[in-house]
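Customer escalation, tier 2.

The customer says the design service returned an amino acid string that "doesn't look like it belongs to this structure." They asked us to rerun it and document both sides in this ticket. The original structure tokens are below, unchanged.
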């Protein structure tokens, strides 16, 4: 028997063999000429993946939370006003981080779990608060809700706020055009649609953000995250020169280099379209099985993951059955509905066959949980969509 299951959680995801091979290669010096070249190319390629030709990339050992911390630490000074477009668990986290650096945070909450705040609600908050910055969680991993980043970013710009997008569960899967949409800072982590094992925090900061950073009056309150230290490092590597502040995650950088080349070979437009198609196929299966999604409206549905309520009479015991059918999916995360739903990630190198296998495993779990449905109806719906 094959002792390997398909990992379909919203990160870490399945990684390609070439990325994993880079992880296993003999580690080079962080100032070796070939590593400097790789680091330099990574920075150049990140601008292309984020569609941010004017951006300054930072790649630092750490997770997505460090990328959030880095954005807040370098931009917030005590007393600054911040607006958090709140779609769930990770928006709450951003608020806590901003507050840690002294920001006065106002939330614009979704009306209900699974919803996103409307553009009008955000506009009136921007009007009355006039924040220095606003944060948007592109895809809230706790609810599978995607926000309308394009329109919200335009609004933020209109009211003079720096627009910060948490793309941890989105970037390189969900459509995002940093420069064109007026996003001042976008951030992510390696383990999701970027397709590299956990351990890298990635931030791309636009000119308005770098300008705001350069006019700070107070020291950055976080030594490790301080761009005063990291900016010269990024500039040195991009100029193909050795430099040191803190040891880079060498093998992860080699792996990111491989992954970014793969992403750019696929092409961003094709990649966005593939994520949409696979997501639609999975969601078609969910509907055919008469299951309800957490996002309340189709335009709020992420393409990188899905959140699905357990039907009547089924509970999280189904996760074990799905696992026994060879696929690992994730349980609930949002505190208000944690026990009522599960999450399936479909991003990165995921294929149509992975989606079909996942739907088949979910059908197996539903069947073993006593749920009544026409066997195979989900698989057929997904396959129809894919074909
Ligand atoms: N933001 C979002 C939207 C996320 O999904 C996550 C991780 N699931 C984070 C931030 C935090 O990232 P990490 O767990 O890598 O620190």
């Amino acid at each position: 028997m094959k002792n390997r299951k398909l990992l379909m959680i919203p990160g870490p995801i399945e990684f390609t063999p070439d990325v994993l091979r880079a992880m296993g290669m003999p580690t080079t010096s962080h100032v070796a000429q070939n590593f400097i070249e790789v680091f330099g190319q990574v920075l150049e390629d990140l601008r292309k993946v984020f569609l941010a030709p004017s951006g300054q990339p930072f790649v630092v050992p750490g997770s997505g939370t460090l990328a959030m911390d880095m954005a807040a630490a370098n931009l917030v000074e005590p007393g600054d006003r911040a607006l958090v477009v709140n779609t769930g668990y990770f928006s709450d986290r951003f608020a806590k981080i901003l507050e840690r650096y002294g920001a006065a945070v106002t939330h614009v909450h979704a009306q209900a779990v699974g919803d996103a705040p409307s553009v009008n609600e955000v506009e009136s908050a921007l009007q009355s608060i006039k924040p220095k910055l606003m944060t948007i969680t592109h895809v809230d991993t706790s609810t599978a809700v995607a926000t309308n980043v394009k329109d919200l970013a335009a609004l933020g710009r209109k009211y003079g706020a720096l627009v910060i997008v948490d793309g941890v569960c989105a970037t390189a899967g969900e459509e995002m055009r940093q420069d064109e949409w007026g996003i001042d800072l976008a951030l992510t982590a390696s383990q999701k649609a970027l397709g590299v094992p956990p351990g890298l925090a990635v931030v791309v900061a636009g000119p308005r953000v770098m300008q705001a950073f350069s006019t700070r009056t107070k020291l950055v309150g976080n030594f490790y995250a301080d761009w005063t230290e990291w900016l010269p490092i990024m500039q040195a590597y991009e100029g193909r020169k050795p430099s040191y502040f803190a040891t880079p995650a060498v093998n992860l950088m080699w792996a990111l280099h491989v992954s970014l080349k793969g992403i750019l070979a696929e092409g961003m437009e094709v990649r966005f379209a593939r994520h949409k198609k696979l997501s639609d196929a999975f969601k078609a299966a969910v509907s055919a099985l008469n299951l309800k999604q957490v996002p309340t409206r189709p335009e709020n549905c992420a393409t990188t993951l899905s959140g699905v309520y357990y039907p009547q009479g089924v509970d999280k015991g189904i996760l074990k059955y799905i696992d026994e059918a060879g696929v690992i999916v994730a349980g609930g995360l949002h505190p208000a509905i944690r026990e009522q739903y599960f999450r399936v990630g479909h991003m990165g190198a995921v294929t149509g066959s992975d989606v079909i296998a996942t739907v088949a495993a979910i059908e197996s779990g539903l069947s073993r949980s006593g749920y009544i449905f026409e066997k195979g109806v989900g698989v057929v719906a997904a396959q129809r969509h894919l074909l």
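Tier 2 assessment: The sequence is consistent with the input. The CA atoms of residues 52 and 158 lie 20 Å apart. The two ends are 30 Å apart (CA to CA). Sent an explanation to the customer and offered a walkthrough call.
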